[in-house]
Structure formats: structure tokens, C-alpha cells
Design a protein that fits this description.
The structure holds three protein chains of three kinds. Chain A is mainly α. Chain A has one domain (9-98): Helix Hairpins (Orthogonal Bundle), CATH 1.10.287.3510. Chain A is 75% helix and 0% strand. The longest helix of chain A has 31 residues, at 66-96. In chain B, 72% of the residues lie in helices and 0% in strands. Chain B is built from six helices and no strands. In chain B, helix 1 (2-22) runs antiparallel to helix 2 (26-46) and helix 2 runs antiparallel to helix 3. Chain B is extended, with a radius of gyration of 21 Å. Chain C is mostly helical. Chain C has helices at residues 2-21, 28-54, 84-107, 114-133, 137-155, 162-193, 198-206, 214-230, 239-242, 248-257, 262-269, 271-275, 278-299, 305-325, 329-356, 374-388, 394-409, 411-436, 454-469, 484-502, 511-538, 551-557, 562-609, 616-638; strands at residues 61-70, 75-82. The radius of gyration of chain C is 30 Å and the shape is globular. Chains in contact: A-B, A-C, B-C. Chains A and B meet through helix 1, helix 2, helix 3 and helix 4 of A and helix 1, helix 2, helix 3, helix 4 and helix 5 of B.
């Protein structure tokens, strides 16, 4: 446990950057494309996680614990956000009986 | 061996991410997202971030996704269908996302990033004691503020969830 | 003394402000009192300044209030200039002005716009005082414009009547045409001499050696055009008869005694300039002559009491300009003074008649008012004798001096002028006989015709006294009595005199010729009176109501068709052009440009509105697009 992890030698950190970027883009695609509010929310979670991965990777490669502490906080905030966000989705559902975001166009014009 | 593991986990992560976005059934989306979390936890273990990987599983896969499942089952959501009238929009979004991803991959992936050298490498990064020391010394105030954040989120969720007068049950 | 000089115009201005702010709130007595008191106070202060000046050294006093404009090459101050000419004008303006204010208290008694009237009168007095006291050409111009404005306000005083408004507009526009000439003159002077301060200009003019310098000829003509507009000379005189639409005190003050004499004041002020350009003086002479002739001819066939007096004013102004044309500046000023007395008296008397007959102005419906309006009759008779030039009334001396100087320089002009004097006597006495003699031809019952109250009669009496004795300030040399006015005014006219002497342009007249001229003018006046007597007393002729017959009668009673000619030559083309512009350019082109802005904005907003779809996904997409743009910019360009 006191030695340098093997991944440090084998995988350059750029690979993690590429992986995080791809996951992030997939999340964006989900936000733009899907109509159900729940699915959009889940895509946002995906985006947050890709960022978590990047933080942890850099924390390891630069040997700085601040990155992981920040991941800690991101998770906490994501949890709070999901709680409130789902409450809002439930409220919207009570109004319009559906989670389709394309119905909500009162700001038109 | 680590390299192969890394590629395998990455492939799995990307695949399940795509399935999250593409699935019609919201329950399937949730399940695929849980799979994604598992692969990411695997990555964290490879990176010697043991605490984070376990916490990831417990918090995300164990609590947040369960919350999602509850909501989906509560609202009794049906399959989300793609309507044909938005094909143009989908294609445009897809193209732009591919462009975005492409730019990031090419430019950031090929950039020169400084990493720590062998001499100053602290192998205890990621261990619980080290994290705890950092968290409670350097990041004490944010830690306390997060607890306040949770309080407000709780209160908010309860307030939002209340039933209004005259409203029927589902 | 400087403070007193600055106070003089401030007093009527104060009256204007007080009366103007108190329109409708002040009682009639108070408003009239403020107005009359302001002019009386100005008169008293002018008197004090006169005495202080006389005990001084006779040099001009310049009161510099503040610097108005200055550039690297010239400086114009807001300053007053007091010399003998100014003092005389001050006394006439404030004195006659005060009497007319008192008259107006009685005349305008029933009018609701009483307070407004007095505030306008005070404003006029203020402007006229600025004109007269002005220390440089620009100050005089300020007063010039001010009196033009007040003339407009007062002519159109009863502004519910459309015809009166037209008359006011006509007066203002014609004045404006003259003002253009005045302004051009100021520019020419500034360009050549770098100053318009009178004290400096006098020195500059004194240094001129050449006679009839073309630049100065044009300058002189420009100033004379200004004088033409303001003093109703040919061809800018048609506004004066129309200006009779205003109340009679207005006609008396503005269009007889003060405003119309501003042109003459200007030329006398610039006498040093005009002495060097005898060609322009000749031009002034003939214009004045033509004006006098036309005014007199038209006056013979008018049937409105005020119109007759208006044309007689035009004619008398022509006389004054003839005097200026032959270089007799003192005679011109003398005639200004006496004309102020007897013409104001004539107008006020006409006002008294109109008031007594309850707003009747047609002389064909008057007659036999000798017994009903005795004071008015006596004062009117005095004024008539003055204007006809019967000695020893004031008009005789001033007119005779003009005739004498004209005789000395241009015999043809003298003969025409003498004939005009005869015609003047004729039509003025025609007016007198038709109004006051024979039987009453009107419809009012006898007890309704009343004499005017004291507030109106006392100014009449005062003016009658002045018309009688006023001539003695300017007795001709043959009486071996000093010419008081001439001696007083000599320092002001010194530059003109010296220039004329050095270039041998002056004329003299011998004593025997002077007696001959005096006798001839008396004879001609008596002949005119005699003809009028025979027509209107012996034969008891009354001007008929039908259309005039005979070419001369037709021409004169239709005012030589001047208004009609102007209408065809000037007004109709202007209306045509403005109509074309209104439709073609205004509606088609300008409206198009203005509306285009609105149409463009509307179209653009309609187009941009489609981006606000209201859908969250759309907004998210736009956000992502901008993030993509940023990414492209930073990652590709910067790295």
C-alpha cells in the first residue's frame, strides 16, 4: 500500500481526460435529446460523475488529496440537488400529469 | 494487466452511458446508470482512491438511484417515445455533441499535463486517514457549510412535496 | 448716473413681469396703475439723467453691463450708450408712452384682457428703450426684434378674430424681411471694422476718406432695408394700414410715435456712415419721396378713420426719410418729435371718437360730433393744424425745415414734396370735416354718444399743448433765435457735418429763400384746406358707399393694388412651392424614411421572436451552442 499505484506507470493521465470528455458529451446528448424530465436528470448525474472521475484521476496523478475532498463535496451537493429536483418534478407532475418537458412552454413569445 | 482492466472498464462505462441516454424504459436507464457507477468505482480503485470508490457506490448507486427509482415508480412513468417531428433537432444536437467531444478529446487529450514525479509522490493519498486529515484541517468550513446545505435541501424538499388544499390524491 | 441709466429699461420690464404674472389676479385698477407708473417712473428717471448729462461735459456716456461675446478679433458687450440723440428719444418714448398708458386705462376699461394689454405695453416700452439705449448695433437689434414681437402681440391682441391674426402675421413677416437687411448690415460692419460699438464705429467712420466706397454703399443699403421694414417705406409698407386691427392706443404708441421711428433713429445713429455714401442718401431720398406720395394719395380715399391716419403716418415717415436723404438729420429728428405729438394725439382722438360712438370706425357714419365730443374736437383740430403745417403749431416748423433743406439740395424733389404737403392738408381736413362737422349720419341715438372720461381726455389735452408749443425748440435761423434742438444735437452729427464739409457735399440756403419756402408751404396748406372745405362743408359731399369710379379714385381707394400685386408675385408662388414640398417631400420621402425605422424594428422583432419558443430544451440547446463556441475559440485559437 505504500508504493506507487501501477496505473501511474502504465496509463498516461490523458486517457482519463479522454474518457471523462466522452462521458460528459454523452450526458449533454441526453440533456438535449430526451423529453422526460427524469431521464434528463439522470444525464446530469452522468455528467457530474464524469467530472468526479477527472478530479480523482488528477488527485492521484498529482498526488494531492484536495481533488478527492472536492469529489466528496460534489457528491454531497449532487445528493441535495437530486432531492430537491425530484420534489420539483413531482410537483410538475401533479400539475400537468406528465413529465414531458416540451409541454412546459408558458414562456413562449 | 492494469492496462487491460482500464480499457475494459472504460469501454463498459461508455457503453452503459450510451444505453442510459438511449433507453426507452426509464427503469432500464436507471439500471444502466447504476452499472456506470460500478465501472467508475472500479476506476477509482485502480487509481488507489479506495474511500471515494466505496462512498461512490454507497451514496450514488445506493441512495440517489434508489430515490430515482422511487420517483419513477411513484409517478408510474411509461416508456418515453421518440416523436418523429424532432428528428432534425436530434441530428443537429448529435452533430454538435460529436464536435464538442471531438474538440475536447483532440485538444485536451493531446495536451501536455504535468504529473508528480516519483520522488514527491505520496502514496497515502486516497487513504482514509489522509483524506480525513485534509478534510478536517484545510476544508473544515466547506464541510460545515455542506451540512447547512443539506438542511436547506431537506426543508425545501419537504415544503415542495406538501399537498395543496383541495388537491386529490393520485 | 450709470446706475440710473441701467434702471431706465428695468422699470418697464418690472411692470411687464408684474402684470404678466398677475394676469387675471390683479384688479384692473392695479394693473393699469402698475403699467402707467412704470412708464412714468422711466420718464422721471430719463429726465434726471438728462439734467445730469447737461451738467456734464457733453460726451457720450457708455454703461457697460457685461461682456456678451468675445472672440480673438472682436468683442461685443451688453452696454448702453447715452448721448444727446438717446436722451431725446428717451424723453419722447417714455413721455408719450406714459400718456398713452393713461389713455389706455380708460379706453380698455371693459376689455377682459386688460392686464395682458398692460403687460404687453410695458414689454414694448422695455424693448423700445433697449433699442434706443443700445450701445452697439447688436443691442439695438435686440430692441428692434423686441418691438417687432410686441407689435405682433399687440396687433393681434384680440386674437379671436382671424383677420386680426393675419394682420399681425403680416406685420411680423414684413418686419422680418427688413431685419434680414439689418443683420446683413451688422455682419458687413463687423467684418470690415471688427466692432459694432457706436463709440468705436464713429471713430472708424471718421477715418474714411473715400466717397461712395462700394462696400460701404452695400452696408448702408442693408441698414436702410432694415429701416424700410420697420418704418414702413416702399415697398414694405402694406403692414402698417393692416396693423390698425390692434386697439387704438397700440396704433398710437407703436405705429405713430415710437416703433416706426426706429428706422429713422438707426439712420441718424449711423449718420457718420451715411455721410460718406451720398449715392445711398439719394436712394433714401427717392424712396422716401415715393412713399410719401403714395401714402398721401391713398389716404385721400379711405373711409375708415384709422386707415386714414395710418396712411398719413406712412406719408409722414416718407417725409422723415426725405429729410435723411438730403442730410438734414436734425430736421428728421425734429419731425419725429413733432409727429409723435400730433400723430399720437390724432390716434388717441380717433380712439376717443370710436369709444364715444361705441366702436364705430367708418367716417361715412359719423358727422356733427363737434357738440357731442367737444374736448376731442378741439384737440383733434389742434393736431390737424399741426400736421397741415399751419404756424405757429409744431408741425409747421418741422415740416418747413425739411422743405427748406430739400429745396437747398434738389429742386425737383422740393416741388413734389410741397405738393404732397398740400395733399396732406387736404385729406386730414377732409377727415376732420367728415367726422366733426355737418349732420350726424349714423344710427346711434343722441344720448348714447358720450365724451370720454378724464383718463382719456387729459392725455389728449397734454398732447395738444405739446403739439402747439413743441415747435419752438427748433426755430429756423431767420427768426434769430437759437435752434435749441440743433445745438443740442450737434455733437452727435459732428462726423457727418465734417465729412460733408471736407468733400463739399453740403448745401446751404439763403435767408430770402427760406422766407419764400415758408410762405409757399403755408399757402399750399391753406389751398389744401380750402379744397377740403369746399368739397365737404360747402357742397356737403359725403363719400358714397358704392364702388369708386374714375381711374384715380379707383387706384387710390384700392391702395394702388399693392396687396394684390404682392399676393400674385410673392405669396402665391410660395404657397405653391410649399404645397409641392408638403406633398412630395414630406409625405412621400420623409414619412417613408421615418416609417422605415418602425417597419424595420417590427420586422426584426418578429423574426427574432421565433427563437423564444418557451421550451426548456431549446434554451439548453442555445446554451450548449454558446459553450461550444467558447470551446472552439479557446481550445483551437488560443492553444
Amino acid at each position: 500500500m505504500n508504493q506507487i499505484p501501477e496505473i501511474f506507470r502504465v496509463v498516461p493521465v490523458n486517457h482519463f481526460v479522454i474518457l471523462a470528455s466522452i462521458l460528459f458529451s454523452i450526458g449533454i446528448l441526453g440533456v438535449l435529446t430526451r423529453r422526460s424530465a427524469i431521464i434528463i436528470f439522470m444525464s446530469i448525474e452522468l455528467m457530474l460523475n464524469s467530472v468526479n472521475l477527472l478530479f480523482v484521476a488528477f488527485s492521484t496523478y498529482k498526488s494531492d488529496p484536495a481533488g478527492q475532498v472536492f469529489v466528496f463535496f460534489i457528491m454531497a451537493i449532487a445528493a441535495a440537488e437530486v432531492a430537491v429536483g425530484l420534489a420539483i418534478i413531482v410537483m410538475i407532475y401533479r400539475r400537468i400529469r406528465s413529465t414531458d418537458v416540451s409541454i412546459l412552454n408558458n414562456l413562449k413569445g | 494487466m492494469v492496462l487491460n482492466l482500464f480499457y475494459f472498464l472504460s469501454f463498459l462505462a461508455i457503453l452503459s452511458g450510451i444505453m442510459v441516454v438511449v433507453s426507452k424504459n426509464p427503469i432500464h436507464s436507471v439500471l444502466y446508470l447504476i452499472l456506470t457507477f460500478f465501472t467508475l468505482s472500479g476506476h477509482y480503485i485502480l487509481l488507489n482512491a479506495q474511500f471515494i470508490s466505496i462512498v461512490n457506490l454507497i451514496v450514488y448507486a445506493g441512495a440517489i438511484m434508489v430515490l430515482f427509482l422511487f420517483t419513477i415508480m411513484f409517478l408510474n412513468l411509461q416508456d418515453d417515445s421518440f416523436t418523429g417531428s424532432r428528428i432534425m433537432f436530434h441530428v443537429a444536437a448529435l452533430l454538435m455533441v460529436i464536435a464538442f467531444a471531438g474538440i475536447l478529446v483532440v485538444k485536451l487529450g493531446g495536451a501536455q499535463i504535468d504529473v508528480a514525479d516519483d520522488a514527491s509522490f505520496n502514496s497515502q493519498v486516497g487513504m482514509v486517514e489522509n483524506l480525513g486529515m485534509t478534510l478536517f484541517n484545510k476544508f473544515l468550513v466547506p464541510f460545515e457549510l455542506v451540512s447547512v446545505l443539506f438542511l436547506s435541501a431537506m426543508v425545501g424538499a419537504v415544503m415542495l412535496g406538501r399537498k395543496e388544499k383541495g388537491e386529490r390524491n393520485f | 448716473m450709470e446706475k440710473l441709466i441701467a434702471i431706465i429699461p428695468a422699470l418697464p420690464f418690472l411692470g411687464f413681469v408684474l402684470n404678466g404674472l398677475g394676469v387675471g389676479k390683479l384688479s384692473k385698477g392695479l394693473a393699469g396703475g402698475i403699467g402707467a407708473l412704470a412708464s412714468l417712473a422711466a420718464f422721471v428717471v430719463s429726465l434726471v439723467v438728462l439734467f445730469q448729462f447737461k451738467s456734464g461735459d457733453g460726451q457720450a456716456v457708455v454703461v457697460n453691463l457685461w461682456t456678451w461675446m468675445s472672440s480673438s478679433s472682436w468683442k461685443i458687450d451688453f452696454s448702453f450708450h447715452v448721448d444727446q440723440l438717446t436722451l431725446i428719444m428717451l424723453m419722447v418714448v417714455t413721455g408719450v408712452g406714459f400718456l398713452i398708458h393713461v389713455f389706455s386705462i380708460g379706453y380698455m376699461h371693459e376689455d377682459e384682457g386688460f392686464g395682458k394689454f398692460f403687460s404687453f405695453l410695458n414689454l414694448f416700452l422695455f424693448s423700445m428703450l433697449i433699442l434706443v439705449l443700445g450701445g452697439n448695433l447688436l443691442m439695438t437689434f435686440i430692441g428692434w426684434e423686441g418691438v417687432g414681437l410686441c407689435s405682433f402681440l399687440l396687433i393681434g391682441f384680440w386674437n379671436k378674430n382671424e383677420a386680426f391674426n393675419e394682420a399681425a402675421k403680416k406685420a411680423f413677416v414684413m418686419n422680418r424681411i427688413g431685419d434680414l437687411g439689418f443683420l446683413a448690415g451688422i455682419f458687413l460692419i463687423l467684418f470690415r471694422f471688427g466692432t459694432c460699438q457706436y463709440t468705436e464705429l464713429v471713430q472708424a467712420f471718421g477715418a474714411i476718406e473715400t466717397v461712395n466706397d462700394p462696400y460701404l454703399v452695400w452696408t448702408g443699403i442693408c441698414f436702410f432695408i432694415g429701416a424700410m421694414g420697420k418704418s414702413a417705406q416702399l415697398p414694405l409698407f402694406t403692414w402698417l394700414p393692416d396693423a390698425m386691427a390692434g386697439p387704438t392706443p397700440v396704433s398710437a404708441l407703436i405705429h405713430a410715435a415710437t416703433m416706426v421711428t426706429s428706422g429713422i433713429y438707426l439712420v441718424i445713429r449711423m449718420n457718420a456712415l451715411y455721410a460718406t455714401i451720398p449715392d445711398v442718401q439719394e436712394f433714401i431720398l427717392w424712396i422716401g419721396m415715393a412713399t410719401a406720395l403714395i401714402g398721401a394719395l391713398i389716404g385721400t380715399s379711405q373711409n375708415d378713420i384709422k386707415k386714414v391716419l395710418a396712411y398719413s403716418t406712412v406719408s409722414q415717415l416718407g417725409f422723415m426719410f426725405v429729410a435723411l436723404g438730403v442730410g438734414a438729420y436734425t430736421a428728421a429728428l425734429f419731425h419725429v418729435i413733432t409727429h409723435a405729438f400730433f400723430k399720437a394725439l390724432l390716434f388717441l382722438g380717433a380712439g376717443s371718437v370710436i369709444h364715444g360712438l361705441h366702436e364705430e370706425q367708418d367716417i361715412r357714419k359719423m358727422g356733427g360730433l363737434k357738440k357731442a365730443l367737444p374736448i376731442t374736437y378741439i384737440t383733434f383740430l389742434v393736431a390737424n393744424l399741426a400736421i397741415a403745417g399751419i404756424p405757429p403749431f409744431s408741425g409747421f416748423f418741422s415740416k418747413d425745415e425739411i422743405l427748406a433743406h430739400t429745396f437747398a439740395s434738389n429742386k425737383v424733389a422740393y416741388i413734389v414734396l410741397a405738393v404732397i404737403a398740400g395733399i396732406t392738408a387736404f385729406y386730414m381736413f377732409r377727415l376732420l370735416f367728415l367726422v366733426f362737422f355737418n349732420q350726424y349720419r349714423g344710427k346711434l341715438s343722441a344720448e348714447k354718444i358720450h365724451e370720454s372720461p378724464a383718463s382719456m381726455s387729459i392725455p389728449l389735452i397734454i398732447l395738444a399743448v405739446l403739439s402747439t408749443v413743441g415747435g419752438f425748440i427748433g426755430l429756423p435761423e431767420v427768426f434769430h433765435f437759437p435752434h435749441l434742438l440743433g445745438d443740442f444735437l450737434a455733437p452727435v452729427l459732428q462726423p457727418a457735418k465734417s465729412f460733408a464739409n471736407t468733400h463739399s457735399l453740403s448745401h446751404t440756403i439763403s435767408h430770402s429763400e427760406e422766407w419764400m419756402v415758408m410762405g409757399a408751404s403755408v399757402v399750399i396748406s391753406l389751398v389744401g384746406i380750402g379744397i377740403a372745405y369746399s368739397m365737404y362743408i360747402s357742397k356737403k359731399l359725403v363719400p358714397s358707399d358704392e364702388a369708386p369710379v374714375g381711374i384715380l379714385h379707383k387706384l387710390t381707394s384700392n391702395k394702388f393694388y399693392f396687396d394684390e400685386i404682392y399676393d400674385v408675385i410673392i405669396l402665391k408662388p410660395i404657397h405653391l412651392i410649399s404645397g409641392i414640398f408638403a406633398i412630395l417631400i414630406d409625405i412621400l420621402i420623409i414619412n417613408l424614411f421615418v416609417e422605415a425605422v418602425g417597419i424595420l424594428t417590427k420586422g426584426l422583432s418578429m423574426g427574432l421572436k421565433t427563437s423564444q419558443s418557451g421550451k426548456v430544451t431549446g434554451y439548453a440547446f442555445l446554451m450548449f451552442c454558446s459553450i461550444l463556441a467558447f470551446t472552439v475559440f479557446y481550445l483551437i485559437k488560443v492553444f
